[in-house]
Amino acid sequence: MSYQVSRNGQLYGPYTLEDLQRYVATGNVLPTDLATDVSNPEAAPNWIPVSQLLAASGAAIPTPVAAYPPSYGAPAPYAGSAIPYPDPPNLSWGLCLLFGFLTCGIFNLVYDLIQVLWVKKVMPTSKSLMYYLIFLAFEVLNLGTTFGKIALLSANRFNEVPANSIPLALMSALISIGVLVMYILYRFTMRAELERHFNGPEPIGLRLGPIMTFFFGGLYFQYHFNRINLIKQGLRYRGTIV
Q: 162 with 227, same domain?
């Protein structure tokens, strides 16, 4: 089952029951926060305290460490997480854009891998790395079919059209579709995982727009990573987190 949590009019989640237990233990979710089962979208919401939900399910209610209200727009109240999560990649998004332009996008492919590896590190159940590797494989295949089409065009110049030109074109079209599908899947999976992490274990109220995610992906994520790192650096300076 999946549960949504409400605190001061803000909605977070959805979370599994195990997530709720873990977040109550770290103080990211309060036992007094309200929760409802969102597994059935047609059912009317039944908001009950998280402590009551855990007790009704037979799950142990851990003793919270501290309470951390989400506050991405106002960093001052953010108190960080009891778990020492590693900071996100911190290269300026502007430099990512410049290096990507200078390398014809190769740098962005490598840096996107760095980002999904970080997500996998803080969320071991993350699927974005797997989807990204499949996307990368399709990209390599797409490059191969591109060279094949260039060879066909060269042959056409000498009126020597190979008999396998139609199968190659069909394969190229299918691979291009695969690239697009895996591109969308890995980016939006990563978006969901980032929102889940930064509204749970490190609750800063992160919200990522679908349009910016689709068109700018890694650069858009890096822009938010830079902001998150500034927040965490400021809190370390004040001695709020380690």
A: yes
CA distances 236 to 26, 30, 59, 222, 240, Å, are 19, 24, 35, 21, 6
Q: Measured between alpha carbons, how far apart are the two ends of the chain, in Å? A: 34
Nearest partner of 214 among 176, 188, 178, judged by Cα: 188
Q: Which neighbouring-strand residues pair with 48?
A: 35
Residue 226's beta-bridge partner residues?
none
Total domain count, the chain: 2
Q: List beta partners, residue 15.
A: 3
| Domain extent at residue 45 | 3-56
Token digits of residue 9: 């009019």
List, for residues 68-111, the tens digit of each pLDDT value: 444 443 333 333 444 468 899 999 999 999 999 999 999 999 99
Do 124 and 7 fall into the same domain?
no
- DSSP state, residue 104: T
